[in-house]
Write a structure and sequence with these properties.
InterPro entries: Aminotransferase_I/II_large, HTH_trans_reg/aminotransferase, PyrdxlP-dep_Trfase, PyrdxlP-dep_Trfase_major, PyrdxlP-dep_Trfase_small, Tscrpt_reg_HTH_GntR, WH-like_DNA-bd_sf, WH_DNA-bd_sf. The protein starts with 12 loop residues before the first helix and ends with a helix. The protein is globular. The strands form five sheets. A seven-stranded mixed sheet has the order 4-12-11-10-9-5-6, with helices on both faces. The chain has a four-stranded antiparallel sheet with strand order 13-14-17-16, with helices on one face. The chain has a two-stranded antiparallel sheet with strand order 1-2. Strand 1 and strand 2 form a beta hairpin. Helix 1 crosses helix 3, helix 4 packs across helix 13 and helix 14 runs parallel beside helix 16. The protein folds into three domains: 64 residues, Arc Repressor Mutant, subunit A, CATH 1.10.10; 118 residues, Aspartate Aminotransferase, domain 1, CATH 3.90.1150; 233 residues, Aspartate Aminotransferase, domain 2, CATH 3.40.640. It contains 16 helices and 17 strands.
Length: 458
């Protein structure tokens, strides 16, 4: 239990208490998962009113330090000390990137041909003007066909064009939820949704997972005890664990979404690698669902284009959100993306990426396969179990000292549950095979040396 010793009395008391908690969390005095004193108990310790503690805890919760669980208490979040952004602008660049799942760059030379085709259409003047926030009609028509590949039936009037997947996610959360709203997520989830929620004042509630991802009974229990407004999910292949959701599981979650009138935000980031048009979670609860299909990892990441499918009752709100923050996605970039799809270049690039990922998965298994892991050609990252002598954050730091960036489980954790001793190793971050090989060799050496040292010490 947290024993508050020192606060800055020059600050407003509620802020001083929140900042003292943040200080003690980062100092390791209070650890992830620790239960905090009740409002009344801490008020007595500090000598302030209960309302002051309530305000302090509210500030701490907004900063992502703590979470309150109805009927159980207030706990330090698992990621209180972890970075939750997709990319950290204040961190130094490391020689080998194996944290961020970058789109594989295949050295494709057809880009000039695609751009030439777009220019020959004679619509450049149109593309250089302001456009509607939902995107041009002809681009949304291509979006309809693209989404149909992944089991998402849509019409032009239900599709928007956004400036990439993260923009789609941010615009959707901004448009459909209010500060303070609670959104259910996997207890290990995409850092980008954590970063967006923190910016927008949304509260993420972690739901226990099993071998297929979110457990329906746990989600329903959460809905019964809290006012849950939405659900964020990667319904096809969970990030970071690579767990695959069965059709039976999707049906069960869809029933809960409809029953509690949740807004589902499904981010199918790796759908293009799947190659199957099986019905997505969104398609099973289409009246309540927003489906995001980014093109960045599929091909030409620099274009920053994604397609979003939304029901009529949510569509205009999301379009307004797009207008509020970027006005509209670039019609010229959208035209290049759409032409790539129409002329078959996109499919050719994806085919080569799958072949490269297959090659890298084989190499990963050769070098690190003796460690428990989950990876496949349908994902751009492996989920790797660490020896008991490591925590994820310790290994992330040690790898960085060797010039390699990996992401610890702490980055993905939500709520008070102590994260498992895992790291996510990007299969696509290293730009070439030599860097990829060197990175895996260094990680293997680091793991084995720690195990040997730990064994000798015992």
């Amino acid at each position: 239990m947290w024993d508050l010793k020192v606060i800055d009395t020059s600050r407003p008391l509620y802020l001083a208490i929140a900042e003292a908690l943040e200080r003690d969390v980062h100092a390791g005095i209070v650890k992830p998962g620790d239960m905090l004193p009740t409002h009344r108990a801490l008020a007595k310790i500090v000598g302030v009113t209960v309302s002051t503690i309530t305000r302090a805890y509210s500030v701490a919760e907004k900063r992502g330090l703590i979470t309150a669980i109805v009927g159980k208490g207030t706990f330090v979040t698992a990621d209180a000390c972890a970075r939750s952004s997709v990319m950290d602008m204040d961190l130094e660049q490391l020689p080998i990137e194996m944290g961020l799942t970058k789109p594989l760059h295949m050295g494709d030379c057809s880009f000039r041909d695609v751009v030439s085709q777009v220019l020959e259409e004679g619509k450049l003047h149109k593309y250089m003007q302001y456009a509607d926030p939902q995107g041009l009609a002809e681009h949304r028509d291509v979006g309809v066909a693209w989404l149909g590949r992944f089991g998402v039936p849509a019409k032009r009037e239900n599709v928007l064009v956004t400036a990439g997947g993260q923009h789609a996610l941010f615009s959707t959360l901004y448009s459909l939820f209010q500060p303070g709203d609670r959104i259910a997520v996997d207890v290990l989830t995409y850092p980008g949704v954590k970063a967006a929620a923190r910016r927008l004042g949304l509260r993420l509630e972690g739901v226990i997972m099993d071998s297929e991802g979110i457990v329906p009974e746990e989600l329903e229990s959460l809905c019964n005890r809290s006012d849950i407004k939405g659900l964020y999910a990667v319904g096809r292949l969970q990030d970071p664990t690579n767990r695959i959701m069965s059709n039976k599981r999707r049906d069960a979650l869809a029933r809960i979404i409809r029953k509690y009138r949740l807004i589902l935000v499904e981010n199918d980031v790796y759908g293009f690698l799947n190659g199957q048009a099986d019905r997505t979670l969104s398609a099973r609860a289409s009246a309540n669902s927003v489906y995001i299909a980014s093109l960045s990892k599929a091909f030409y990441a620099g274009l920053r284009i994604a397609f979003v499918a939304a029901p009529a009752r949510l569509y205009n709100r999301i379009a307004q959100g797009v207008m509020d923050n970027v006005l509209f996605a670039s019609p010229f970039c959208a035209a290049i993306a759409c032409r790539s799809i129409q002329c078959g270049v996109a499919d050719a690039i994806i085919e080569r990426k799958i072949a490269e990922l297959t090659r890298r998965v084989c190499i990963f298994r050769e070098k690190l396969g003796h460690h428990r892991h989950t990876c496949s050609e349908q994902s751009m990252a492996a989920w790797l179990k660490l020896p008991d002598s490591w925590t994820g954050s310790q290994f992330e730091t040690a790898a960085a000292q060797k010039g390699i960036r990996v992401y610890a489980a702490e980055r993905f954790a939500v709520g008070p549950v102590v994260p498992p001793n895992y790291i996510r190793v990007s299969l696509s971050g290293a730009p070439d095979m030599q860097s990829f090989d060197n990175g895996l060799d260094t990680l293997a050496s680091l793991l084995d040396r720690k195990k040997t040292t730990a064994g000798a010490a015992g």
